[in-house]
Amino acid sequence: MDFVVMIQVNFFECGGIAIGIYTSHKIIDGHSLLTFLKSWACESSSRQNIHPDFTTSPLIFIPNPKLPKELTLTMWPTLFGFRKPSIFTFSMNLRPRHSPPLLPFSMGNIIWNIASSYNCDTDLEVRHVIACLRSAAEKVNNEFIEEIKGEGGVFKVEENLRVLEEKYYSNNNALYFGCTSLCNGGLYEVDFGWGRPIWSRVSSFETGLPIATNYIALMDTNTSDGIEAWISLEVNLMAVVECDPEFLAFCSLDPSPL
């Protein structure tokens, strides 16, 4: 990608408008993108602006919405039927975990991934999976964040990434699942002056990247009373999810956004 941001505005004969935005994840995360969108919308509609904060030192940070995380974990055991070792990662927003908390409009790639694994030789209940992820999340505290801040933090980041690779990512026979959440991020509050969005979607999928093959992106619905899960899976895994009665009890497949 040669540009930091690429934007395309589409006008339809019916009067509808669709805005597409492509950004580099090397410099901003999903929350930074939402800040950019909300600030841009406020500026264009002459409303009180949201001012992005660029003073935060480069960090790597994860949101902690309880419902989205638990919803995602109901998907993971569904895939255990393949009886293969699997790794589950969850991208965390580090802004609220900093002490004092960073401004919600802090710009940057301020995330960190936590991981949990499943061994097909043992039975694992959802509560055990939740406990594993909660334990990993608790370790991402202010002390950890201080260690990865600044110029010296790059060595700590490399050390932690090496541990993750040795413990989780080195198993070539495992299934890998990743998840990110933008729930409660205010995506449907973005108003350029012609009203709030009828429907929005977010994706961090890159064609040809194996790590993005099995990925779940969570976001609010346009009524803010539910959660949309954008799920990208291998064909054989998707076939299992689409027919699993326990999973389907929690959701509707491809509901209309209107």
Automatic annotation (TrEMBL):
Gene3D superfamilies from the UniProt entry: Chloramphenicol acetyltransferase-like domain (3.30.559.10)
Domain of life: Eukaryota
UniProt key word Acyltransferase: yes
Any single Pfam family the record assigns to this protein: Transferase
GO molecular function, one term: acyltransferase activity
InterPro entries: CAT-like_dom_sf (IPR023213)
Protein name (record): Transferase
Keywords associated with the record: Acyltransferase, Transferase
Family designation: Belongs to the plant acyltransferase family.
UniProt signal peptide: none
Organism this protein belongs to: Anisodus acutangulus
